[in-house]
Structure formats: C-alpha cells, structure tokens
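Customer escalation, tier 2.

The customer says the design service returned an amino acid string that "doesn't look like it belongs to this structure." They asked us to rerun it and document both sides in this ticket. The original structure tokens are below, unchanged.
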C-alpha cells in the first residue's frame, strides 16, 4: 500500500494527465475543423500560381491551358428576380461594369447569375488574369451547373477591361491595329513551340505557324486559334481543361473556351467564355453564344433604346 503522500502525488499526476489529454484532444479537434479550409485555400493559391506559370511557359513547351474552379456558392451571386429590358435584351441594374469613366450594362440571360467580387471564385480568376487587365464582372450559368450535376462552376464568363485603353474611345481603325498586333504576338509565341508532329496535315501545320488561322482545319490543345475576325471584334478558340481540387483528389475535365476582344460603345473589352466540353456540337454553341453575348451587350448599351420590365 502506498504512503498517503504518494497517494496524493499519484492523484495530482492523474489530474495533470487528464488536463493535458483534454487540452491535446481539444487542439486536435480545432485543427481538424480548420485544416480543410486552410488546405483548400492553400490548394487554391497553389493552383493560381500554377496557372500563371503554365501561361508564361506555354510559348516554350506548348502545354495545355487549364482553369481553376471552385465549388458553387449561391450566396456569392448578384441579380434580381425580374430583369429590365432595353432593345429587347434583359439586364439588371446591378450588372454594370466601369470602363474608364463610362458605365456599361451586361446582358442577363435566364439561368445566369452574377458573382460578387468578394467571393473566392471571383478572386481566383482575377489573380490569374493578364497583367494590366481589370476583371470587371464574372457571370456563371447556374442552370447549366445544375443540369450537369456539377460540383463546381463549369460554364462562366469573365469580362475584362484593358486598363491601357479604359479612358479612350477606340474606333474600327484603331481596333484593327490592336487586333493585328495581338495576332502577331500570338503567332510569334506559337511559332517557337508548335511542332510538325502535332498536325496530321503539313498544310495545316504551315498555316497555323504562319498565322493564317482561317485556313487551318485542325487545332492543337492549349493553343488559341482565331475563329472570328471583324472590324470591331476578334475571337480566339481553344481546347483546354478544368481543374477542380477536392480534399482527397483532383478532378480534371475537358473544357472549351473563347477569348474575345470587342468594341462596345467605343470601349475595348475582353470577354472570356469557358464551358464544359461534352461533344463536338459544343464548339459551335460556344462560338454562337460568344457572338450573341457581344451583340446583346452592344444592343443593351445603345442609345435611344426603350426601357421596360
């Protein structure tokens, strides 16, 4: 039998051990609750950095473009139940962007939602953008996300304002000069990285390398190819992929995208539209939607339009 003083010491040791165990258990519980969020944020930041590196290295290695996506959060949306119509195009008062000192409306299609600038999805895309371009608005097709039962945003539009031209009014002549310079830069990048092995036909390879995109009948993953070229609008198409990082795995799915530079009421805008690629018909659909978006944005910002609900 232990002496009384030893019993007292043993009791105190037990109490101390219980307190230490409880503190360790509590810390582990807190860490377990915080780790997923911290891990997700860290993964998102790593994906954004990877996107930047892949974009910069594309001219050297011809790698695929990829887009980081995040889970859908409805609380990060903008818009009202009943849109306003102008020249037959619906829009919301909240859906406006600023190009210099000018405000421009955005078309509001059924099933589409605006994303708040404070949301994670907005910030991820803004941080991955081209330097000198301000992300003015993000729109997501919530209806398409539900129909495809997607866990992440898989059809959305990004509207950018090139800050260099934000306070100037651009004409068709100045736009043509801008479009030509842009195409020359893209052709110079692809010329250093595209290879003959990427094409089945030598003529397609030569046309693509020389920048004669309208003559190319096939394309290479990750490269932009000019699909629409007009006096006030130029659209590039690319085949790419979505990257969605979960706690346990990484999901990659095929994506198609258009990058469009267009004049709207004299202002130069860049409009990126990205969606899930499920069939060859999707390529025609995204090009058609791109043109419709630009046409409707011009209509909803035209002078003298009738406004009604």
């Amino acid at each position: 039998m232990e002496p009384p003083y030893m019993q007292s010491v043993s009791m105190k040791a037990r109490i101390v051990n219980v307190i230490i165990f409880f503190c360790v258990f509590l810390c582990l519980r807190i860490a377990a609750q915080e780790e997923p969020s911290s891990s997700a944020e860290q993964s998102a930041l790593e994906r954004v950095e990877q996107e930047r590196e892949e974009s910069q290295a594309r001219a050297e290695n011809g790698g695929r473009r990829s887009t980081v996506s995040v889970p859908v959060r409805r609380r990060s949306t903008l818009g009202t139940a009943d849109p306003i119509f102008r020249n037959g195009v619906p829009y919301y008062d909240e859906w406006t962007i600023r190009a210099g000192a000018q405000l421009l409306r955005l078309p509001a299609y059924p099933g589409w939602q605006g994303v708040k600038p404070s949301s994670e999805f907005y910030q991820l895309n803004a941080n991955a953008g081209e330097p000198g371009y301000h992300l003015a608005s993000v729109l997501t097709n919530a209806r398409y996300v539900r129909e495809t039962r997607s866990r992440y945003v898989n059809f959305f539009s990004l509207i950018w304002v090139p800050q260099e031209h934000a306070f100037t009014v651009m004409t068709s002549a100045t736009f043509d000069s801008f479009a030509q310079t842009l195409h020359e830069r893209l052709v110079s990048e692809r010329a250093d990285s595209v290879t003959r092995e990427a094409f089945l036909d030598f003529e397609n390879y030569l046309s693509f390398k020389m920048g004669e995109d309208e003559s190319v009948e096939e394309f290479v993953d990750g490269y932009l190819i000019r699909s629409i070229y007009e006096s006030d609008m130029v659209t590039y198409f690319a085949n790419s992929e979505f990257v969605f990082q979960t706690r346990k795995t990484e999901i990659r799915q095929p994506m198609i995208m258009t990058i469009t530079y267009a004049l709207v009421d004299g202002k130069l805008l860049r409009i990126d539209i990205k969606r899930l690629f499920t069939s060859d018909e999707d390529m025609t659909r995204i090009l058609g939607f791109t043109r419709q978006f630009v046409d409707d944005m011009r209509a909803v910002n035209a002078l003298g339009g009738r406004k009604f609900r």
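Tier 2 assessment: The sequence is consistent with the input. The first strand starts at residue 66 and ends at 69. DSSP finds six helices and 13 strands in the chain. Sent an explanation to the customer and offered a walkthrough call.
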